[in-house]
Automatic annotation (TrEMBL):
UniProt keyword Transferase, yes or no: yes
Record-linked NCBIfam families: pepcterm_TyrKin
Protein family: Belongs to the CpsD/CapB family.
A Pfam family of this chain: AAA_31
Enzyme kind, highest EC tier: transferase
Native organism: Massilia soli
Highest taxon of the lineage: Bacteria
The name this protein goes by in its record: non-specific protein-tyrosine kinase
Region annotation (Disordered) ranges: 1-23
């Protein structure tokens, strides 16, 4: 199963607002087409024991242990940012699949945040239209998370879109408003794991600013494509991060098969 970067292909865009289920606010409810995601090779609740589903079961376990280990002393330890050194390595694919896999857990809910504010793609990959989100909260004193968070047809999964683009994105992500927002997101629900899809580390300054405020960082590396020097340079920008994990993506371990290696 090939796992292209999500920027490389256009996907069918679904309607932002679906008919509400009982108890859902139609302004903040989206219906994800899970059958479509399964056809794309993504992890879904009813997709069976695919190779991707099994790989992300392995990947998520140490991340969950770190997120729930109070003795670690790490702030925001349930906030996990997924990034890469360069575009095209599959970080958005991994962020969505990781969120989908954790959403299958019985004891956790997941908030998936599109923090790649210059090139947001989470909603596009999920077949959804653009919506207000993270940048809008940071730019307005009147908006809060509850005003823009999107509930989905997966009860344990919610979405926070990137929102409008802004030329001062780095400064906004480094602001006190952002720090306070992350504390609120981290502490509001004790069972919540928050996954951030971040910009590439070597392409923008936003990625390292965002990573500095996370409890855990997952860096996606494209096998047989990303050089060792590129990986080292990207890791240098994460020196301040307490928990860094690497996913080796698109690596073939046997003819005709794909393997997603995990290194903690």
């Amino acid at each position: 199963m090939h796992t292209p970067d999500t920027h490389e292909h256009e996907h069918e865009r679904g309607a932002l607002l679906a008919e509400p289920e009982h108890g859902h606010d139609p302004r903040r409810y989206v219906d994800i087409n899970l059958a479509r995601l399964h056809q794309m090779g993504m992890v879904t609740h009813d997709g069976g024991r695919t190779s991707a589903a099994e790989d992300f079961r392995i990947i998520k376990r140490p991340l969950l242990r770190n997120a729930l280990h109070a003795a670690s002393g790490t702030a925001n330890r349930n906030l996990i940012v997924v990034t890469s050194a360069l575009p095209g390595e599959g970080k958005t694919y991994c962020a969505i699949n990781l969120a989908m896999s954790i959403a299958m857990e019985k004891d956790h809910t997941v908030l998936l945040v599109d923090a790649d504010v210059a090139r947001p793609s989470v909603l596009k990959v999920l077949g959804l239209g653009a919506a207000p989100g993270l940048m809008d909260i940071l730019l307005s004193e009147k908006l809060g998370v509850a005003d823009v968070i999107l509930k989905t047809n997966i009860d344990t999964l919610s979405l926070l879109p990137a929102g409008r683009n802004n030329k001062h994105a780095t400064e906004l992500l480094a602001s006190q408003t952002m720090s306070a927002l992350l504390v609120e997101i981290s502490n509001r629900y004790p069972d919540r794991i928050v996954i951030f899809d971040s910009p590439p580390l070597l392409l923008t300054t936003e990625a390292s600013v965002l990573a500095a405020q996370m409890g855990q960082v997952v860096m996606v590396i494209e096998a047989e494509a990303t050089t060792q020097g590129t990986v080292k340079e990207a890791l240098r920008r994460l020196d301040h991060c307490p928990h860094i994990s690497l996913i080796c993506n698109k690596a073939r371990s046997f003819p005709g098969g794909d393997y997603y290696g995990y290194y903690d």
